[in-house]
Design brief:
With 477 residues, the protein is α/β, with parallel strands linked by helices. The protein is 34% helix and 25% strand. It has 15 helices and 18 strands. It has helices at 10-15, 21-42, 59-65, 82-91, 103-106, 116-127, 145-148, 152-169, 194-199, 202-214, 232-246, 269-279, 298-316, 336-339, 357-365; strands at residues 69-74, 94-97, 131-139, 176-181, 219-224, 253-256, 259-261, 282-293, 321-326, 343-344, 379-389, 392-401, 410-414, 419-425, 428-433, 436-440, 453-462, 471-475. An 8-stranded parallel barrel has the order 1-2-3-4-5-6-8-9, surrounded by 6 helices. Helix 8 runs parallel beside helix 10 (202-214), helix 11 runs parallel beside helix 12 and helix 13 (298-316) packs parallel to helix 15. The radius of gyration is 25 Å and the shape is globular. The protein starts with 9 loop residues before the first helix and ends with a strand. Bound molecules: ligand G3I. Ligand G3I binds at residues 98-99, 141-142, 181, 257, 287, 335. Residues 98-99, 141-142, 181, 257, 287, 335 line the site of ligand G3I.
């Protein structure tokens, strides 16, 4: 990301906005001199040293190490927020368009298609090495009124044309499609929507077959909510899958949306995933969030960490659970506050996109390390570039306490080749190796309550145009 830093003096730009220039000029010169000295004595070989594996912590890298993906939903408006796009690119390897591939956007009037918004999401995903879950082709909601007003004998051809046109447009670009979304009522009966009313239950098999003909390589899903545990609705989904497979319908997976309420992850989630997998289809957690009555307390956030961890652990126990997607990148993107008055804080990142205890818990569930350590407290570190200009960039590391308070923390920042730190703020640095800075807190940001965050920053000079993100870790004493 390049940021226009205007006409401020270079030293001020190095420090970042709001920093005391006079006070930091001395520290900048000293730290730069020390870094140069260390570089000289340690030699160039240290610069190319491999980064420690633990420093690469991200949801996607940990999930990939387990043969899974970790996804997020993104909408068009999120693409213009660089905080969101940076975090999404760092943490997630699968994107579900939140609204952009739904019928009201893609075919607002009969035969007139608009793939512009969906294309933007796909292009973002591709440029960040992420795959795409197509969402969705046939759904009773966000369905333009012209479809529900059609004479019954025209619905099938319109549905098939919609599916064929959309799936063909994205052929080879969508890893999976939610072909039919939310087909069931909570009691397990099929919704009597425009498609059911025109074609009966056979619309589902027809939709899946039509999608398969347009892109035989896409994984084809049925997706629904309240089917995460074993209940009347998931029983109905199970029977439907059985019947589709018996008819030779090319269904590949079932999406468990997983819009949970704090503390209410069903105890039968694992068994439910296992029975679908045993039947011969993949399962995926497609829209995970966990809503909290606001304001969220630290006890709530700790429970949320447990809930997220349970979901991820259960998925990892089922070889056909292919991945987990959260619905939104952070709390600021979540649909929850507008749909459930008084509720929110439903994702792993807060309103400012800082990681919450749920993030740390998921990292741990995926086999990663948050640092762990004594005193019962743990911490995590995330990196964000805040400014970049010719040969220089500013980085910010956010340190977040886990589900209990911590009294101190230690963060390592491992630089890439050609990178040298020339200034730091909000911490006490040492350099055990030429390319590794160990940052300990200043007195003002040592103590963190459970889930609380602080940050420190630094300026990096790059001699070879390497602006790649330094790797960061956090541990507690
Ligand atoms: O685009 C209009 C805009 O023109 C208008 O000014 C504005 C006023 O309210 O509404 C905008 O449309 C909104 C749309 O999102 C796009 O932002 C709709 O009101 C709003 O209802 C719609 O909500 C979406 C919801 O699906 C609709 O059911 C959410 O963003 C989206 O996150 C949500 O996603 C669904 C999944 O597709 C299926 N599973 C449940 C999940 C959560 O509801």
């Amino acid at each position: 990301m390049r940021t226009d830093v205007g006409k401020r003096p270079l030293d001020q730009r190095l420090l970042g906005p709001g920093k005391n220039l006079a006070r930091h000029r001395t520290s900048l010169r000293l730290t730069a001199a020390l870094a140069v000295l260390l570089l000289t004595t340690a030699g160039a070989a240290a610069l190319s040293a491999a980064r420690p594996a633990s420093a690469a912590t991200s949801l996607k890298s940990l999930a990939e190490a387990k043969g899974r993906y970790f996804g997020t939903a993104m909408t068009q408006n999120m693409l213009s927020n660089s905080t969101v796009t940076t975090l999404a690119g760092q943490q997630f390897d699968m994107v579900t368009p939140g609204n952009e591939m739904k019928w009201d956007t893609t075919e607002p009037s009969n035969g007139s298609f608009n793939f512009g918004p969906g294309d933007q999401i796909v292009s973002f995903a591709q440029s960040h090495g992420m795959r795409v879950r197509g969402h969705n082709l046939v759904w009773h909601s966000q369905l333009p009124s012209w479809v529900s007003s059609l004479p019954l004998n025209q619905v099938q051809s319109v549905m098939e044309n919609h599916i064929t046109t959309e799936v063909t447009h994205y052929k080879g670009q969508a890893y999976a499609w939610d072909v039919v979304n939310e087909p069931f009522n909570d009691n397990g009966s099929l919704r009597q929507d425009a498609f059911y009313n025109a074609m009966g239950s056979g619309y589902i098999a027809d939709a899946i077959r039509t999608a398969h003909a347009a892109d035989p390589n896409a994984k084809l899903y049925l997706n629904d909510y309240n089917i995460e545990g074993e209940n009347a609705k998931s029983n109905a989904m199970y029977s439907l899958v059985q019947s589709l497979l018996a008819q030779g319908v090319p269904i590949n997976g079932v999406g468990l949306e997983s819009h949970f309420i704090l503390g209410q992850v069903p105890s039968s989630l694992l068994a439910n995933m296992q029975r679908f997998a045993a039947r011969g289809v993949d399962v995926a957690v497609t829209e995970l969030d966990d809503r909290i009555q606001l304001p969220a307390t630290s006890a709530n956030l700790a429970q949320q960490a447990t809930d997220f961890s349970t979901v991820v652990s259960d998925c990892l126990q089922v070889s056909r659970c292919v991945g987990v997607s959260q619905w939104g990148v952070g709390d600021a993107d979540s649909w929850i506050p507008s749909a459930f008055s008084g509720y929110g804080a439903a994702t792993m990142f807060d309103q400012n996109y800082q990681p919450k205890p749920a993030y740390n818990a998921v990292v741990t569930a995926l086999g990663g390390s948050n640092g762990g350590g004594g005193g019962g407290g743990s911490c995590s570190a995330t990196y964000q570039e805040t400014q970049q200009w010719n040969g220089v960039f500013n980085g910010q590391v956010t340190i977040t306490a886990g589900s209990s308070a911590i009294s101190s923390w230690t963060s390592t920042v491992t630089l890439g080749s050609g990178q040298v730190i020339s200034a730091t703020w909000n911490g006490n640095p040492t350099w055990p190796q030429a390319n590794v800075m160990v940052m300990k807190p200043a007195s003002s940001n040592s103590n963190l309550a459970a889930g609380q965050s602080t940050s420190f920053g630094f300026t990096v000079k790059t001699s070879n145009g390497n602006y790649s993100a330094p790797a960061v870790t956090c541990s507690t004493p």
